[in-house]
Amino acid sequence: MDRPSLAAPFNARSLMMAGLGSGVFAGLVEGVGLLFFQRLNWAGWGPMIHVSREIIWISPIVDAILFLSLAIICSIVARLVPRLPAIRVLAFLLTFFSVYDWLTLTGRLYHRACLLLALGVAVALTRWCDKRENTFLQFWKRTTPWIVAAWILAFAGIQGGNWLHERNVVTHLPPAAPGAPNVLVIVVDTLRADHLFSYGYARPISPNFDRLAQQGVLFKNAISTTSWSLPSHVSLLTGCYQFEHRIGNVQPEPWLGWGSKGLGGFPTLGEALQQKGYRTGAFSANRTYFTTSLGFGRGFQHFEDYFHSPADMFVRTLYGKEFARIYLNRSDKSKVKRALRFLGMNSMLDKDSEGSGNYGGAQGVRKRADVVNQEVLHWVNRGETRPFFAFLNYFDVHYPYGGSPTDPKPVWDHGGPIDEYDAALKYVDDAMGRLMQALDDHGLLKNTLVIVTSDHGESLGQHGLSYHGQALYRELIHVPLLVWYPGHVPAGVKAPTPVTNAAIPATIMDLLGANARGMFPSSSLSPLWQTADGSDWPDVLSELARNDIAGKEDKAMAKVVPTASTGSMKSLVTPQWQLITHETMGDQLYDWGLDPSESNNLAHAPQGQAATVNLKSRMQGLMKIGK
């Protein structure tokens, strides 16, 4: 039978070793656990703050800082109060915070249950440690160097592996064609077309977009394939409608990674451009529905989504999320928020929609358009001689609306939803202008094909809805689309024909002189700027699978307006009509030319009945052709 060790004398260095070792170990377990339970809890993807494998080396940093702080506090207090059993107090604290961490990250237990269980384990270990303090300290003295070495190995393996993979892929690319242009695709998430000056909006808040539109081709009636981000981005990269790629909702991430299964296994624009010798990179500010965790890494050698700043790294760890949940949902006058502002940590207070912060949970940290620009320019300017394909997602127009909190508000912004939405759009447009200028300063813009679009629009109160993803009305699927490529596309053309923005991959390949037939289902849009006649152009389809992603405001409208909460939906847009069919609640028909707000449903009116039957037949025919 082992004899209990004698109580160890107080030693600050020993306490530091215990704090460091236990912190790094707790963080390593946490990082692996966050990845594991993210996959296991995939059905709750929307109200979740997400991670990628970098969390394995990030979590230990946060936990080590926390646990070292506890060790320092115990050391200081022990010097002031010599009779304090510092080792046992620290053992209790380290055990409690470790166990609470590991229980909470599962996402399957109430916080009170995690607290009680952690408290019980901590008390039990403290009792064990009562007469084994020396054993406790010796354990951490021996194991801490090995634990820190494991962290260093994880950091080097993950970051070095990313760098080596990208370098290896670029090295083995085929040679690019001489003079091949760079390709820049900008997706302004949640941007409805009718809030741009080029599309008739009264406020001149988009001068940079408007300038590009004057120098290129503007599609006046571009239609998104759906009204929310995930399936829309799949279509933007594969050229497929939703009924073709079959990704209408979040799918569980394979345990061994997506590999070639991402995006339904369909060819992607990134893969097509790699075959043409392009470096490919994606830069996403939508860290919920456009990330590598959802398979979007296919075709991109370089992908930046999570961990853009220390604040973003912090809130993706367990204790970072706990801090956000407890303190960052309070009013702006709270002491914690005032302290963060005083310390200049405003980015921590720039709230994102990622996570469930609007409903009392943790909140994400916003990734602003200027940060996306910095990532793009850093990647572009690495000195590579190959042409690049950069795919950007600006997320600032998405709720919660508004520009950067460090910028002054426009004089017309009085705080209402539309004013705040427009303020966010103005900020994005300014950021896009800065990106164009930076590329021009580096001599890159003159040989760059630029396409700007959106993945979907926003309701902003129309049809009783506030946000998106629940219907297919025009304000939700009518998106901007411009093609800017001086010398290769005409300037000032405004094409009126309704088109799908899923045609972007085929259009890009066409402009590069490549044959994309058989790779992308949608046709190139180039004939529409070569001739004004679009009378025989295909009708445009949008789809929306049944889902439960609605906010509480839009959920309340499900009894009044046909929404995706009660069934799947489809839409067909022609030069005159928009037909919307709902799985359980029937049809809607609008003459969008005469009724742009779509307030008069003609599906059951005498003048609309025949059109409804005809359009439903055409919709079925289009989907059969696609198959």
Compact overview of the structure:
The chain is α/β, with parallel strands linked by helices and 627 residues long. The protein has 19 helices and 17 strands.
Number of domains: 3
Give the beta-strand count. Answer: 17
Q: What is the end-to-end distance?
A: 74 Å
Mean pLDDT: 93
Query: What would the CATH topology of the largest domain be?
Result: Alkaline Phosphatase, subunit A
CATH class of the largest domain: Alpha Beta
Q: What structural class do helix, strand and pairing data support?
A: alpha/beta
What's the CATH H-level homologous superfamily of the largest domain?
Alkaline Phosphatase, subunit A
Low-confidence stretches: 1-8
Largest sheet composition: 8 strands, mixed
Radius of gyration: 27 Å
Relative helix content: 40-55%
Based on CA inertia axes, which overall geometry fits?
A: globular
CATH architecture of the largest domain: 3-Layer(aba) Sandwich
Q: Widest sheet: strand order?
A: 5-4-8-1-9-11-2-12
Summarize the helices and strands and which ones pair or pack.
Blueprint: H1 12-40, H2 55-80, H3 86-104, H4 111-129, H5 133-171, E1 182-188, H6 207-215, E2 217-219, E3 222-223, H7 229-238, H8 242-245, H9 269-274, E4 279-284, E5 302-304, H10 310-315, H11 318-327, H12 335-342, E6 351-355, E7 363-365, H13 369-380, E8 388-394, H14 417-441, E9 448-453, H15 474-477, E10 478-479, E11 481-484, E12 493-495, E13 499-500, H16 504-511, H17 527-530, E14 540-544, H18 552-555, E15 569-573, E16 577-582, E17 586-591, H19 606-626
Parallel strand pairs: 1-8, 1-9, 2-12, 3-13, 4-5, 4-8
Antiparallel strand pairs: 2-11, 3-10, 6-7, 9-11, 14-15, 15-16, 16-17
